[in-house]
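Action item from last meeting closed. Structure (327 res):
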């Protein structure tokens, strides 16, 4: 039987752990964190099994998530790919633009305002926000509407932790996410490619689903700017564009909010944007996907599963809905 580790899964399960493995993992860790100060924190971040600290970010420790579906067995995409092949139009529309230009983004100090239909509105300082709940390691598939996918080891916690804290009123039906739009930090704002600030939204029950996540880190480190520092949304059963980066405002509202992509091309982008291999985007088939890192000459495309493979967890949210109409 293949072990989880064989499949590229980086957290050894308790039953797999032998003292020798523990020792070897420790040695890797020590090397990785030169000096070993971070040993106590022991981020379960996937970097460790690869034997090297992947980036330059500060460590951000999480513990293995127990949320059902939060730890895909798919092999995580390399850190170098996750942080160099990005969509973050505030820094340009080329995949390489965010890694190149997002150095001007200042992820601290940072606040996130929560307003609208909640009993406890307020502005969270980033540090306070990060302390709302224990940080968890989760490994999610990310499917972009353009036809590629990745597997990303995020660090963060369920968005529901924040939702519960601010106590939505009975009028709150949707949640809108607005992200930073500062021309001084974001050269891409000069282009009119999207309506700024970048706006995304979820139905309240989607926002409450435990798989919907606020992410603060990747691979056991704080998010690099190009991945949406210091805090972003991750909704693994929806196309990647729902996962708004560098969030500054969260609004609870009674009507379905307009999203930037809907405003740009309503016939191409619906509000729901659930991954659905049966409903093609006008320009890209959604039936199959190319996994980043597997793109050799003979690499086969993978079939895209309904809800990006999260149907057992989220299918019920859409019971009885016509998903062709509500795409
Ligand atoms: N958030 C903002 N603020 N601006 C963007 O352009 N692009 C989205 C989403 N979040 C985007 C954004 C798209 S199209 C995708 S596929 C994902 O971010 C990509 O996330 P990644 O670069 O971390 O893989």
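Sequence:
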């Amino acid at each position: 039987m293949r072990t989880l580790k064989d499949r590229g899964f980086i957290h050894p399960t308790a039953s797999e752990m032998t003292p020798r493995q523990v020792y070897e993992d420790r040695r890797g860790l020590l090397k990785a964190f030169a000096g070993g100060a971070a040993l106590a924190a022991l981020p379960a971040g996937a970097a460790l099994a690869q034997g090297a600290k992947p980036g330059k970010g500060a460590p951000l420790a999480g513990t293995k998530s127990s949320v059902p579906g939060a730890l895909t067995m798919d092999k995580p995409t390399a850190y170098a790919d996750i942080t160099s092949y990005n969509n973050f139009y505030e820094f340009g529309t080329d995949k390489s633009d965010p890694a190149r230009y997002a150095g001007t983004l200042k992820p601290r100090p940072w606040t996130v305002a929560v307003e609208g239909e909640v009993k406890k509105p307020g502005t969270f300082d980033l540090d306070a926000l990060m302390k709302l709940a224990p940080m968890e390691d989760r490994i999610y598939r990310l499917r972009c509407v353009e036809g590629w996918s990745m597997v990303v080891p995020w660090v963060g916690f369920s968005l529901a932790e924040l939702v519960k804290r601010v106590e939505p009123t009975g009028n709150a039906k949707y949640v809108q996410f607005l992200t930073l739009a500062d021309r001084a930090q974001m050269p891409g704002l000069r282009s009119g490619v999207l309506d700024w600030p970048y706006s995304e939204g979820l139905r309240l029950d989607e926002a409450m689903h435990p798989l919907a996540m606020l992410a603060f880190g990747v691979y056991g480190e704080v998010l690099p700017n190009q991945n949406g520092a210091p805090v972003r949304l991750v909704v693994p059963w929806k196309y990647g564009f729902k996962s708004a980066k560098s969030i500054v405002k969260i609004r609870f509202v009674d009507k379905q909010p307009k999203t930037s992509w809907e405003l740009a091309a309503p016939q191409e982008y619906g509000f729901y944007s659930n991954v659905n291999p049966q409903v093609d985007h006008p320009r890209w088939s959604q039936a199959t996907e190319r996994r980043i890192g597997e793109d050799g000459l003979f690499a086969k495309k993978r079939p895209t599963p309904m809800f990006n493979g999260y149907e057992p967890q989220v299918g019920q949210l859409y019971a009885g809905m016509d998903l062709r109409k509500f795409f």
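Note appended to the action item: The first strand starts at residue 63 and ends at 64.
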